[in-house]
Amino acid sequence: MTPAAPAEGTVLGVDVGGTRIKIGVVGPTGELGPHLSLPTPATPDEVVARIAQHAGILGARAGLAPTTPVGVAVPGVIDEAAGTVELAINLGWEQVPVRELLRAALPGPVRVGHDVRAGALAEASWGAGRPLAASPGGAPADLVFVPLGTGVAAAVVHEGHLLGDRYAGEIGQLRVLEPVTGRHMRLEEVASASAIGRRYAEAAGIAAGAGPDAREVVARARAGERTAEEVLAGALDTLAQALATIVSGIGPLPIVIGGGLAEGGETVLAPLRGAIAPRLGAIPAPPVVPARLGMWAGCLGAGLLAQHGDGPDPVVAAAAASSSSAPASASDRGSTWPVGTGAGAAGA
């Protein structure tokens, strides 16, 4: 059966993570069409080959032209102008000309961006930022997006634009005090989702790789298991050290927590609020809320980059374009195809 014609401005978004690649068809107002999640291969060439293969498969399923723009979001320190990954610790990449490799493998235009910055744009445009916005169709609310996954990073959206250069947001590399031993460690070695699972296994005497993931640790903490409670509390208190510092510099903007840990709800968010507030002194405590786009924020953000090509941050335009649509939760997305009609610029 021939798929229905996709709406104008429909593109492909790709989120390259440390363990999974997420690829999806992204509609002009943030609808997620056919999508899939795949293991991340070991080398840049293998990653590019996997993206090219499955972008072609999904594009064909959605009725997209082979030359449909593709946005690709990757972690680490990214020179977006050059399309180069300067350093991605969780991928083991250094000085990888990823845009050049992708352009050689894909027939259409390609735009490369930072995964967390792309996710922040998507959350501001189509997710958590919409109910926080001052007026429908206007600039989305200012916010700080903090996804917790293989690593930890942050991105700040202010007046519809991302703040900072390519080094901004790499908070996972900050040296913080580890809560048990008092040693200085990188934040993501304590507070990332992967670290929470690993630290729980160590505390419980479980063999490496055989313990629960962070979601399960949160579930066990909710059920009152002491080891899980202690590991989770230590991770959130350590994360609060970094977030309180951010708030002291930019003010009490809403903090949007993404990644799998956000699904823990108040088991995660309440202690995080409680750990941030006492560190702020006279500064008002910011709202701390869950992301709305779930694990697909980076993919949707990559699609947003592709829709708007090499122009300025597309968040204001996207918010205006989607103002007539009701906000969709992650569970709503992907349930209907083709995407709704709406204007969307294509280019990358």
Automatic annotation (TrEMBL):
Residues 321-348 are annotated as: Disordered. Residues 321-331 have a biased composition (Low complexity). Belongs to the ROK (NagC/XylR) family. This is ROK family transcriptional regulator.
